[in-house]
Amino acid sequence: MSDVVKVGLLQGTPTPDAIAHIFPVQYVAKALTAGSAGIGLSTRDLSRHQFTPGDITLCRRDTKELVRWNDPVEVLMIEVPDNALRSAAEELGADKVEFHGTPYLQDPRVSAIVTAIEVESTLGNPSGRLYMDSLGQAIASAITQVCGVLRRPFRQVKGGLAPAQLRRVSEYIQDRLAHELTLVELANVAGLSRAHFSQMFHRSTGIPPHKFVTNARIARAKELLLQPELRVIDVAMACGFQTSQHFARVFKMLSGTTPVQFRRAC
């Protein structure tokens, strides 16, 4: 099963005949250019679909659909991790989630998450794996709630992490700030599914896991910047930032000043 959000580009080319598409995984697709296509389960029932930039649709896994592109079209394809979908279903009290049809997703929450994934991927994932994991869980939960078919009723999650769980996770994060952290990894430390962990962690701390980690990295960076023998790039790497530019941008966003200015003022 996939644990990682994967982003790709599908380029539709006009053809006289419909082409069969079978996706082995669940995709959310966002049109990047305008155009149209005939889509259906057979050549005799192709329905015309008009796309405008920003339109989002769900591409069901393991379903054969015929597509005849009428115009050159570029589509952003976001693979939704299997484990994220399973966790989303479990948190809603179901064994799994199923999707029927190929619905347009006009939910503003879905649109915002897709945009965040697109921006993060375009920039080369500067915020790290944990942030993208959180986006993957968010998009899985959103599409499950918007158009998923569940076998059991909603089960409300109450409370937060137990003090011992929160302490284990916090210590784990502090010990590994220089390393890439994943949502599955932190959930395993707490002994929970990733979706359940995300909700419980947020209830306990008031912020999602990736923001907690970012705050911890900036706090550690401030301590290290007090050591004049360390270069700014050394501090950035020690705190898990991939580049000094990303480190400076996040540092200023959270602290209101750059790392260099902070060091000069101390």
UniProtKB/TrEMBL annotation:
<keyword id="KW-0804">Transcription</keyword>
<dbReference type="GO" id="GO:0003700">
    <property type="term" value="F:DNA-binding transcription factor activity"/>
</dbReference>
<protein>
    <submittedName>
        <fullName>Transcriptional regulator, AraC family</fullName>
    </submittedName>
</protein>
<dbReference type="InterPro" id="IPR018062">
    <property type="entry name" value="HTH_AraC-typ_CS"/>
</dbReference>
<feature type="domain" description="HTH araC/xylS-type">
    <location>
        <begin position="167"/>
        <end position="265"/>
    </location>
</feature>
<dbReference type="InterPro" id="IPR009057">
    <property type="entry name" value="Homeodomain-like_sf"/>
</dbReference>
<dbReference type="InterPro" id="IPR018060">
    <property type="entry name" value="HTH_AraC"/>
</dbReference>
<keyword id="KW-0238">DNA-binding</keyword>
<dbReference type="InterPro" id="IPR020449">
    <property type="entry name" value="Tscrpt_reg_AraC-type_HTH"/>
</dbReference>
<dbReference type="Pfam" id="PF12833">
    <property type="entry name" value="HTH_18"/>
</dbReference>
<dbReference type="GO" id="GO:0043565">
    <property type="term" value="F:sequence-specific DNA binding"/>
</dbReference>
<dbReference type="InterPro" id="IPR050204">
    <property type="entry name" value="AraC_XylS_family_regulators"/>
</dbReference>
<keyword id="KW-0805">Transcription regulation</keyword>
